[in-house]
Automatic annotation (TrEMBL):
The keyword Oxidoreductase applies. This is NAD(P)-binding protein. Residues 150-285 form the GFO/IDH/MocA-like oxidoreductase domain. GO terms for cellular component: cytoplasm. Belongs to the Gfo/Idh/MocA family. It comes from Acaromyces ingoldii. One of its GO terms (molecular function) is oxidoreductase activity.
């Protein structure tokens, strides 16, 4: 085996759809300290895509079982020659928990796409599996933590120059896609707060000092006290059937009175918008107030304009590369990372609380012992009190 300093992490990618392709390219082409040993996806188009975009020699397998049959897994968490060291899981969210628990149980490090799962049961399963295997690294891909602009804002807060951060206002609104792909996707994604809002929730926790990750110097012992949410189906009322909305707003209050609020959507006309404002006692910072694609300004008969990032791929292109490199370094060197599994679980609990709130129309309290949202009475067996409306409904 190569000396530790020269060793490369042997990684396989499970799931090669929209996001899996981004990871496949980044791990194969932009992460020098790893070797991609296989891509796993049952879709018939995967082999062609891999041949054209990565290499004709890279094995493409249909199932995770095929992967584990082909490569030995580490024994006792120790790297061994030819073994598979890590997997990157980018399947639909509904399969995350089962696939992650399987890999963890085999001693294989995991980079798991966000969110951990579509429901609280899956989140807790992954947490339990990780606790049982402390030798295995489990990182949830909360990609904004790897973005240079969010990091610069965070560093400024941590320096104390903005005083104490007490309010985070965040927005994630995807460019409207007329195909309405996100309607059936809702069933497999957990809904807008779990699928999309998880990033905003995570960033707010981080900025407000609630994260237990390395680098958080201004740490707070506050917990989530309660939350409320409303939804509006501006263009896709059929989403209401799944207890989901194409636009939604959430408010979360901490036990020390500080708060965060965000709006989420799937119907932006100008492009992908992803902005964040953090307000402190001595100042405030904005991240990406103008979702500009580049530094070009157009001055013409329409006024002064910039072209907008069309999707999150362009906005977070470099963050995904940093995420891949830091995950690999974390596995090889045992270095701490900027996000912990606990962060992802806490964010998931808040997203679950907001989903309860939007589906019941009630304020959701959090159990102060467990940190979990308490399902409100209005949630059980009725959609009468839902806080989701559309242009045809009346409040
Ligand atoms: N971090 C981010 O900003 C970000 C952005 C987009 C998507 N995501 C996450 O990435 C995940 C995937 O989303 P997507 O849009 O790429 O979905 P997608 O539907 O485009 O791709 C999912 C792929 O998984 C494959 N698959 C399903 N079951 C499998 C299995 N058992 N083994 C191997 N492959 C399997 C499917 O064939 C498909 O190709 C989701 O969890 C989503 O939340 C994260």
């Amino acid at each position: 085996m190569a000396p530790a300093s020269q060793r490369k992490l042997r990684v396989a990618l499970i799931g090669c759809g929209r996001q899996g392709k981004v990871h496949a390219l980044n791990f194969a082409m932009s992460t020098p300290r790893c070797d991609v040993v296989a891509i796993v996806d049952p879709a018939p188009t995967t082999a062609d895509w891999v041949r054209t975009n990565i290499s004709p020699d890279l094995p493409v397998l249909r199932t995770p079982e095929d992967l584990y049959a082909r490569y030995p897994c580490p024994v006792g968490g120790k790297p061994s020659s030819g073994a598979l060291d890590a997997v990157v899981i980018s399947t639909e969210t509904a399969f995350h928990a089962t696939l992650a628990c399987d890999a963890i149980g085999r001693g294989v490090h995991v980079l798991l796409e966000k969110p951990i799962s579509i429901d609280a049961a899956g989140d807790e399963q992954v947490l339990a599996a990780s606790k049982a295997r402390p030798d295995v690294r489990v990182v949830v891909a909360l990609s904004r933590r790897f973005d240079a602009s969010y990091r610069a804002a965070f560093d400024r807060l941590q320096s104390g120059e903005l005083g104490e951060a007490f309010l985070v206002k965040s927005a994630t609104v995807d460019q409207y896609d007329e195909s309405g792909w996100f309607v059936p996707y809702s069933l497999k994604s957990g809904g807008i707060f779990i699928d999309c809002g998880i990033h905003d929730i995570d960033i707010a926790r981080w900025m407000l000092g609630l994260s237990d990750a390395q680098g958080v110097r201004q740490r707070s012992s506050a917990r989530v006290k309660r939350c409320f949410a409303i939804g509006y189906n501006a263009l896709h009322p059929e989403l209401g059937r799944y207890g989901d909305a194409d636009n939604a707003t959430g408010v979360v209050q901490l036990t020390d009175g500080r708060s965060f609020t965000f709006n989420l959507g799937r119907t932006a006309i100008h492009g992908h918008e992803c902005s964040c404002e953090i307000i402190g006692t001595k100042g405030r910072v904005f991240v990406n107030q103008n979702p500009a694609m580049n530094r070009v300004q157009i001055l013409d008969g329409h006024g002064v304009r910039t072209e907008s990032t069309p999707t999150y791929f362009e906005r977070f292109e470099q963050a995904f590369v940093t995420e891949a490199r830091e995950f690999v370094a974390g596995c090889l060197d045992g270095a701490d990372m900027c996000v912990t599994l606990n962060d992802a679980v806490e964010a998931a609990r808040i997203a679950t609380g907001l989903t309860y709130a939007v589906r019941s129309g009630e304020i959701v309290d959090f159990d102060q012992k467990t940190g979990k949202p308490i399902p409100p009475r209005g949630l059980v067996g009725s959609t009468a009190g839902t806080a989701i409306v559309d242009s045809q409904s009346k409040l």
